[in-house]
Design brief:
Layout lengths: L2 E3 L18 H11 L8 E2 L6 H7 L2 H8 L5 H7 L5 H24 L1 E4 L20 H11 L6 E5 L6 H6 L6 E8 L12 E5 L5 H19 L3 E5 L17 H17 L4 E4 L8 H19 L1
Parallel strand pairs: 1-2, 1-3, 3-8, 4-5, 4-7, 5-6, 7-8
């Protein structure tokens, strides 16, 4: 059975007018239920991530500041969120969701988290709507438990996975692949194991050709035994923060390529959501929903 991490606490409200679309975390599971892609039994409520695991991916001093709500004003501004106890609880639930989804993926081939993909969080700081790096936490959990020995992170959000790249800079067991807008945030990029920078306006045909060529080569060369897929939909042409030119159909083909490679090579895959900031919330929901539809169709 397809397992999906979700909690009502993912939908923590922000001040009115905040540009981060929290409502998608409530609307996406509702849409998947409404259209019959999933039933209530597909969802599981995650537990908070273990503090010992947080200490592997993040500096303890940074985690203590988060816990105690003692970030400086400049540190808080860098995250893009007003810091609160509820927000920190949301982060550790989301990270727990990705860790537990990876466990389910080890058993069933695939599992997903309705949130996550918090790839801008560094060891010692948060940035860009990310406080804790769920991709890093999940990777360390898989390595610690020997559920994986070689993890390939496929980050297809429009923004570079800079925090993930920095955390795993000297970790040969985790290969970071980020395909992102060249002129987009973050303006100071980190060095992933493989970065592919895309020009503004890059559309479906070019994007999918580049992905296809590099994904197959990475599987052959790195020979991973687990995939973590950050499937942000801010690559849409309508996205307010994206600057690329992809269509809904293009995102469908992107997700299909990634899931097909995983299934064909018998590689467990955990999918976490990443960004999506189109003006119409319906476009965000439809774009995100496609990977869940594909997971059900291809695996179950």
């Amino acid at each position: 059975m397809l397992k999906i991490a979700w909690s009502p606490e993912y939908c923590h409200p922000l001040p009115p007018g905040h540009r981060f679309p929290m409502e998608k975390y409530e609307l996406l599971p509702e849409q998947l239920l409404y259209e019959g892609t999933v039933t209530e039994s597909n969802f599981f409520k995650p537990e908070v991530v273990d503090e010992l695991l947080i200490g592997q991916a993040h500096d303890i001093s940074y985690w203590e500041k988060l816990k105690n709500l003692s970030l400086s004003r400049s540190e808080e501004r860098a995250t893009g969120f007003p810091l609160s106890e509820a927000l920190v609880k949301r982060e550790i639930l989301i990270a727990g969701g990705s860790v537990q989804a990876a466990e389910f993926a080890s058993e069933h081939g695939i599992a997903l988290n309705i949130a996550g993909g918090t790839h801008h969080a560094f060891r010692d700081r948060g940035e860009g709507f990310c406080l804790l790096n769920d991709i890093a936490l999940t990777s360390f959990h898989l390595l610690n438990s020997q559920k994986a020995m070689r993890i390939l992170v496929i980050d297809l959000d429009v923004h570079q996975g800079n925090g993930t790249a920095a955390i795993f800079r000297n970790e040969p067991r985790v290969y970071t692949f980020s395909m992102h807008g060249a002129k987009n945030y973050p303006h100071r990029k980190e060095k992933s194991d493989l970065d592919i920078e895309l020009a503004d306006g890059t559309a479906d045909e070019e994007y999918l050709s580049i992905l296809d060529k590099n994904l197959k080569k990475l599987i052959d060369d790195f020979q991973p035994d687990f995939l973590i897929y950050q499937c942000g939909v801010d690559v849409l042409s309508s996205d307010k923060l994206g600057r690329l030119g992809m269509s809904i159909q293009g995102i469908y083909e992107r997700d299909r390529k990634v899931l097909s490679v995983a299934k064909m090579n018998n590689l467990p895959i955990m999918c976490c959501m990443g960004g999506g900031y189109s003006p119409k919330i319906s476009q965000i929901i439809d774009a995100h929903a496609q990977v869940y539809r594909l997971a059900q169709e291809m695996y179950f």
